[in-house]
Amino acid sequence: MKKAIDGDNVREALKNASNMICELRTSLLSPKNYFELYMQVFNEMQHLSGFFGDKNRHKKKMIDLYESVQHAGNILPRLYLLATVAAAYIKSLEAPAKEILKDVNELCKGVQHPLRGLFLRYYLSQMLKDKLPDTGSGFEGEGGDINDAFDFIFTNFNESNRLWVRIQNQGPAREKDRRERERHDLRVLVGANLVRLSQLDGMTMEFYAETALPKILDHIVSVKDQMSQQYLLESMIQVFPDEFHIRTLEQMLSAYARALPSVDMKPIMVTLMNRLANYLSEADPEKVQSAGDIFTLFRTHLQGILERALQPQGATGAADIAPALEVLAAFMQFTVSLYPDQVHYVDIILGSAADLLRKFNETGSCALSEKAVDQVGELLAGPMKTLALGVLKMEHFAALVSFLNFETRKQVSLSMVTAIVEEDRPLNSVEDVKALFNFISPLVKDEADTPADEGKDKARFAEEQQKVCKLVHQVRHEDTDVEYQILTEMRGFFGQGGPQRLIFSLQPIFFGALGLVPKIHAREKRRQEEGDEVVPPPAISLKKVFQFLHRTNTALMQSSPEVALQLWLTASVVADQVERVEQQGGFEPICYEFLTQALVLFEEEISDSSKQYKGIHAIVGTLCKIVALDPENFDNVSQKITRHAAKLLKKPMQCRAVSACSQLFWCDARRDAKRVRECLERCVKTCEAVVQSDPAQTGLWVEMLDRYIYYFETNCEEVDVDFLQRLLAICLEHINFALRDQQAEKEAKKAQAHLESTVAYLKKMKESRSPRTRNTISRHLLLLAMH
């Protein structure tokens, strides 16, 4: 062919070109390989096109050349040659472009083989793309106008799409999946026509809205093929300008509602929404205003699009609501980005989702799929991040949550709790707290669908409950009465949680109420200084707060006695501090009541020796800090706990516990040296019995020495120098004996190190300003030196 062209031989050039094009008649190649062959033919045909365009070489009239190529024997080469000559014919201006375009377009309908016809149409589009009577082109006027240019491309698009769709029916049914993949690879041959349309200079907004778009959409919807509609609807959004979409939004959305139910509307809607959101965010305010109420347009037409999801689909005949929910989630993001201040728009979208789910349930379909549940969660997550507690005031938010299963509701509840805590949002309204706890009820109490094994994973359960407990620390209000009401409301919800939750939830409520004590006291002080008119008296007094603490901790006693014991002791210390400040005697009975409850709990609920041992130390430590207790009440509590210490099963524990109880008789509230000596003597007897039976316990003697030194240093007159010397000698004797015992050697070395530390402390005490202490320590050190 090239040789014939070089020799300006038209006949031979056409003959060889026809032979070359005949290779495209094959049915043996896959679409991918056929495309490669087509590109080779296309490149070679450009030489022939250039030859036809040079009249000085072929010296023929274009009409003669146009008619001569139609004598080719096979229709496929004939039409390829016709399209090639048509390009040169239009360029020569020897005939109106519109006539040639119409003629060649009609003739190309002669090839109806799907693959060959599709590539022929693509070739026609490529050859004539710059020969159209577009607005402002050299072919406009007698050669036609924008309507003719549009008609040519649209007809080509129409035929290309139908041929592309028919590919799926070529071949056996077992190869349908493969053909669908091949069709997908060829989609650009159809989409190229839409690109050509968007590039027309005469494609004004008015022409697009009134002429082009209605025809394009009608054709797309009329071709009942899922892949075709999916691709072409997406392509429409990509190839035409955003301002066109704003103007014709209602037309496009109406067409989407007429698409096949199997078409996945999510990518189409998401693409459209993103394009519009970006355009409007950068556009002038006038353009935004002229765009109208986009939200209402979308909402009106989305309803029909979404309800298609309720129709049975696929081989199973089951409805799949997940794609519709994905569209709503995308619409939510679009709305929030475009209208950040219109909270009621968000509620409307949530209402649409709730209605859709309600209708889905009415169809009798199975439960929501995992993907659908995830989409509902995504719909809820966006508002929660931006509005937090504000979502609880929405009419449809809670309704949408109710469609979720227990586990998902719990995750949504955790997201809400996390948002409030991490963003440090205050809880300052009883109504808000009530709405919040009703919403997060899967975390607070057992519900109808709560799994029987809830809480089996203890680490996870504890983490969830600890997050909920953090809400207590978000309670903030200037009025202590309101803060108390909020805590009372929370306490009511936590009380429904059962024993496994009460262990976690009642503790923060308890300390939250304790935090009210200094606030109420400060309020009373300001009221006394500034008057009732400036600072009104609190409706909730300190005694009511202590009553609240009593009720709360009483509920915890059965579930977690060790924790409840600590809380009773903490409350007693606070009551003691209030009594010191008030000095009216009104809080001493409260302090005593808390201590009595601690003892009752200790006696009835704590039976393990090690826990009793720890409890005794906790009670002793608390009593030593309390000073406002009535002496008789103080003695009652002290004597009871000392008796309990003396009854511990293990003698070493008993010795240490009674030693600790001796502190009760030498503290701020009481100074009774005689009772101290009695406790210490009892400890020494017990210690002697223990060490005699087990030399490994020799460290007890050093502990007793430490206790005696403490009382001597604090001027307890019943602890004399002589006994300190004897006790020191006993320590050395037993340690030396234990060091020779192989079984007790390890513990003896620990006791020896402990004694060395005690000796180092005694050396420092020698520098004491007290002559009694300085002289005594000198004698001790002399004794140690002798040993």
UniProtKB/TrEMBL annotation:
Spans through the membrane: none
Protein name: Vacuolar protein sorting-associated protein 35
Purpose of the protein: Plays a role in vesicular protein sorting.
Alphabetized Gene3D superfamilies for the sequence: Vacuolar protein sorting-associated protein 35, helical subcomplex Vps35-C (1.25.40.660)
Membrane-related topology note: Peripheral membrane protein
Entry's localization field: Membrane
Pfam family, one: Vps35
Main location: membrane
Keywords, ordered alphabetically: Membrane, Protein transport, Transport
Family membership noted in the UniProt record: Belongs to the VPS35 family.
